[in-house]
Fold this protein.
Amino acid sequence: MLSKTPPTQLKSWKRLKELSQSVLAALSKSPKEIRLGNPGWRIDLGNMVFDFSRNLLDKEVLIELERLADEANIREGYRQLISGDEINETENRSVLHPALRNPAAFDLELDGLNVREEVESSLKRIEKFSNEINSSKRTGFSGLPFTDIVNIGIGGSDLGPYMVTEALKEYWKPGIKPHFVSNVDPFHLDQTLKELNPQTTLFIISSKTFTTQETMANAEAAKSWFIGNGGNELQVQDHFIAVSTNIEAAQSFGVDKENVFGFWDWVGGRYSLWSAIGISIACTIGYHNFKKLLKGASKADKHFKDSEFKQNIPLLMALIGIWNTNFLGAESEAILPYSQGLHRFPAYLQQANMESNGKAIDRSGNPVDYSTGPIVWGEPGTNGQHAFFQLLHQGTHLIPCDLILFSKTNGEYQNQHDMLLANGLAQAKALWEGKSIETVKKQMGNEKSAQLTAPFRFFQGLNPSNILLFETLNPETMGFLIALYEHKIFAQGVIWNIFSYDQWGVELGKEMAGKLLPILNGKDSNDLDPTTSALIETIKKWG
Ligand code: F6P
């Protein structure tokens, strides 16, 4: 297993602390008196460029960050991950999602099963099923082709497939529309079902555990709607399929054994879109495009595994993130896709990143005394520019940004797409270069009003950002992009000496909700805290 040395004890970490002092001192001055970054810092992979030239670091810091990766044993960590070692120690599980995108490279035994054979046979089933849906070989009970797919799931069983299908709308198969219902708020299911015809609707109940309260409630409600609107118990088997590691529970719900798509404990929920959890993606964009998504991710796996540190995009993303978080004090990261298709990407990354690295206990079980995973947030550009960019440019927080750009549009309006690109490029430039008081005054001309308002029109600049520039948004680049972030998260977890693949922090709220539900439904309780008790009383009073 990986060494459990806290990063703060590593030589490189100590040196980085020293180096950060002068950067912080210069940053605290206004105007900021430093020259950092380097216009040459970019990695060009042919159809993708990672530009990290605008960051608050110099060559010495970069070298020390690479040393940190070395001292933290990133390479050994990844070797353990892809060897099937139980690196998710608190759940005694392996973490093998890279096997889902390139099973041929994973001819290994896990829990008595051959990983390659398992994944290949699951892919064959996904292929057969999605082809049958797309060719209308498989129909609803009345013989009509399926026109709508409703994925019922939450967290990793929703965010990935929803995000990817939205991003790849231009690849949707004609005649098929996906819908995603996650919230236990009945409004979500009601609003979705309102438009649908039970005879042409396929439900995919996606839940790794098949016990998640929200998903089970929505699945039962969907079944009742189906039966109450012309279907019957037997026909549930034609209209409901399930994706789960809990095959028995899926069958007890009423799904035909043939229509339960399994996966494995070694696939974490937030890393599961590559498994059968992605069946809604395969049905929506076609199996051959789903395979391209996997191929793109597999390319990122190879890039991460084989590239030297200096050329390694996810590793550099991780190291720059650590520099910003642990040495410069950034508390959040903004994800800014200049692509409306990627409107759910920040939300997707919130789970991937924050559920993975939002941990305060290290791998030895001790509290950490350094920051771990940052708050991840964002919105597509240009919308964000008219909302929160004010704070990025002139606020008091250091917020590193990732801008994700595509040089071509998949649609017709390249002119308009150029506006989008110009905005993305301009924002990264403005965030970094800022605008000095002198320039503001010169531009204003009028001495008196310049004197008065120049301080408000001044831009401090030196806000760090990375640019991820792709040629086009397609299934392969989508897969590549997602997997880059997965590896970034992995590398940061190794350096922070935390377990990235468990999520105990979600349990307490679930447990309490389980206890509160019967009380809301009338059960007496005398051991409730006064705040919750008063709120429940009000809710009951209002009926
Ligand atoms: O509550 C958090 C979580 O366990 C996530 O990790 C997971 O993606 C989600 O719930 C859904 O879980 P399941 O797929 O088992 O329904």
